[in-house]
Amino acid sequence: MAVRQLFSAQVAPEVSGNTLVEKDFLENFALPDSFPDLPKGILPECYPADVIGDGFIPNWPLWLVLELSDYYKRSRDEGMIQLYHKKVYNLLNYFKHFENKEGLLENLNGTVFIKWLKANDFTKGVNFPTNMLCAAALEKAGKLYNEKKFILKAKKIRRLIRKESFNGKFFADNAIRKSNRELMRTSNTSETCQYYVFFFNLADPRIYPQLWNKIVHEFGPERDDKIIYPKVYKSNLLVGIMLRLELLARYHYEKELSSEIKKYFYDMAASTGTLCENTYDNKRASCNHGFTSFVAHLLNSNILGIRQIDNQNKKIKIVFSDLSLKKCKGTIAAGGKKISLCW
């Protein structure tokens, strides 16, 4: 599934030294001429292993556009970008049928999926996280195919979300059309929605410092949601906690990142030898899940310090962070060779 692959693909080159598995994954979706069990333009959740007749998740293929953009940065595979040209355009055209008069997606067909837990109950009407994802896909497609109209549309969607979703403290998850046809923001608020806002660049710590401070210091693995913001529903690994960890890495909160990785995953790894789809207190499903391998990338990049590898130009960027660790060592693959760092 594209959202999971978006995370696991970041660590794959550090394990294998290449992007061949990612290329195979993307080709699975690109090569078929059509997908007869889905609406025109929609791509499968997982191909060729989709459950036929089990409905579809309309917002899932938007993650695939993000994955395609990331793959291109890693591989510079022009052929794959052209192979996807028609499918990306058809996908974005599909969503035009659900744009409301304000310019936001409303009442999508199928089953909108945001994450496991409460946020998935807030998908009726205008679901703001889905619109954030759509804006990101439009921007990525615009850059891949030199379509300025996609980029401008993404900017408009982000402006509308900031206006319609933010209530002064948090971004609400959705808005509902009332009997007078006016769009009204609900009080439904999830922790994951706040992560979407920062992950998809609708906000940054400078513009929303109070919200960012809450995210870093009051949310996370130790928040007692019965006491601290009980009406802001907690996140699970897919995808809320993954977004949280990426944000801590993006804005260089390495101490917090190191601590939270241990709090979220150490007991899980010690107990099962692997990482799961759900937080450790939920053992009912997917107790061995590839997307959580993303944690290895975060450790390599922000803790060990191998921040960036440019295989084309054979350059490595190393950044040492202010950590409580006394020593660290690791080895990753790159361009058919191995890179080891010890400090």
Briefly summarize what is shown:
The protein is mainly alpha-helical and 343 residues long.
**What proportion of the residues is helical, as a percent range?**
40-55%
Shape summary: globular
- N→C terminal distance: 37 Å
The secondary structure category is mainly alpha
Number of helices: 12
| Number of E-state strands | 9
Percent of residues in β-strands? 5-15%
The overall pLDDT, averaged over residues, is 90
Q: Main sheet?
A: 3 strands, antiparallel
Alpha-carbon Rg, integer: 20 Å
Strand order of the largest sheet: 1-2-3
Q: What order do the SSEs take from the amino end to the carboxyl end, as H and E?
A: HHHHHEHHEEEHHEHHHEEEE
Low-confidence stretches: none
Give the tags.
about 350 residues, mainly alpha, 3-stranded antiparallel beta sheet, two-stranded parallel sheet, 12 helices, about 45% helix, about 10% strand
